[in-house]
Write a structure and sequence with these properties.
It is built from six helices and nine strands; from the N terminus they run E-E-E-H-E-E-H-H-H-E-H-E-H-E-E. About 30% of the residues lie in helices and about 25% in strands. With about 210 residues, the chain is of the alpha/beta class.
């Protein structure tokens, strides 16, 4: 059965964190068939846009609408559970999205795809920064997301793995709403992303 169209819509969204204005009437739309990238320097507020879309930050004003049942979020700071193994971290991310048998299948698939099979029993503290990033991305991709939010997804990855991750993101393009934040232009240009330059804080943007 075909999926219903998913979409992210932010309309004149403003947000304040720690007494500081981070978003100032941000309007943005993302939908399947397009990869939208907020491109700008570190610390300008890009992550806050993703967190608003994910429902992790409540805006001061404006409207947020995100359709779709399955949200995949590749966090900038990984957010892996330190006492769980790599395999258990992936399976935890799949809880509620599929049956236990399907969770095991998807876990094995993404461990293999992102070169993590040999590290499946390790805990996050035993991993390099690049491996932690791959676990983080595998967790987001394994849910077969309707909406995919990626925060600096190529950080800490070598050239070959960047190309691998780019390929898997591109394969989702036509059926998944994808919003990326980055400060490395060439990584998102190779995806054919629609680049939205931003500065801040506060970020102020109207797109499209």
């Amino acid at each position: 059965m075909a999926r219903e169209a998913t979409v992210i819509v932010l309309e004149r969204v403003s947000a304040t964190l720690g007494g500081r204005r981070i978003l100032d009437e941000v309007s943005l739309t993302a939908e399947p068939g397009r990869i939208v990238c907020l491109f700008g320097p570190s610390g300008c507020g890009k992550t806050t846009v993703l967190n608003v879309a994910a429902g992790l930050v409540r805006p001061d004003s404006g409207r947020v609408s995100v359709t779709g049942d399955r949200l995949g979020y590749g966090f900038q700071d990984d957010r892996l559970v330190p006492w769980l193994s790599v395999r258990e971290n992936l399976q935890l991310g799949l809880a509620g999205h599929c049956t236990p048998d399907e969770a095991r299948r998807r876990t094995d698939l993404w461990l293999e795809r992102l070169g993590l099979a040999d590290a499946a029993a390790k805990r996050p503290g035993a991993l390099s920064g690049g491996m932690r990033r791959r676990v983080n991305l595998a967790r987001a991709l394994a849910v077969d997301p309707d909406v995919l939010l990626l925060d600096e997804p190529f950080a800490f990855l070598d050239g070959a793995m960047i190309e691998t991750v780019q390929r898997y993101i591109a394969e989702l393009r036509d059926r998944t709403t994808i919003l990326i934040v980055s400060h490395v232009r060439e990584h998102v240009e190779k995806l054919g992303a629609e680049i939205v330059p931003v500065t801040g804080p506060p970020i102020r943007v109207a797109y499209p």
